[in-house]
Write a structure and sequence with these properties.
With about 230 residues, this protein is α/β, with parallel strands linked by helices. It has 5 helices and 7 strands. The chain has helices at about 10-25, 50-55, 60, 95-110, 155-170; strands at about 1-5, 25, 30-35, 45, 120-130, 135-150, 180-185. The strands form 3 sheets. It has a 3-stranded mixed sheet, covered by helices on one side. The longest helix is centred in the middle third of the chain and has 18 residues, at about 95-110.
Amino acid sequence: MGEITTDCYVDIPKVVRETVKRIGYDKPEYGFDGNTCAVVTSINEQSKDIALGVDCAIEHREMASADLSDLIGAGDQGMMFGFACDETPELMPASITYAHALSRKLADARKTGALSFLRPDGKTQVSIEYGNNGEISRIANIVVSAQHDPEIHINELRDSIIDQVIKPALPSDLLDENTVIFVNPTGRFVIGGPVGDSGLTGRKIIVDTYGGYASHGGGCFSGKDPT
């Protein structure tokens, strides 16, 4: 659901179903299936009062600004921050970069069939240890939780994820004998996705930005729903 003002047509149910299936929820046994789930849309035109500030900003309306960048406004207040750091080629903090790398590798192992017992849900976390001068010293802790088929034994799942997800995705020189790795620490993760946790809009702003590296001013970028 949401608000948008546009002249185009979008087959929203089709887009939603294709997105859900692309994520991997395409079987009834997963509890959520893009082929059969209900799609209810509630899309309305944006409030004309709010649109006054979006379509023509106050700098243009009341200050006669000639700068074209002042023409477009915002429909709400917001706090944004950002920075670049030299810890990774992506210019992002290592902890969030490596956590994202693990998530991508986990999804790749499922989609290619390398780890065919995996299901779409999953989450990752990486804790970095720094030296006295602020340099990256090592990876201290890794957490990977992956949804899986009920038949797979927990030991096989853990060994497979360490060998085919964690080790290929992370720099080997940052891993040592003291790195603590947790794979599915609760032991079982068969029920997942929307059927296991409905989620809450706005809860993902940290993983969408800099991880635990910096505080956040609030305001959500996205919901947890698969659209």
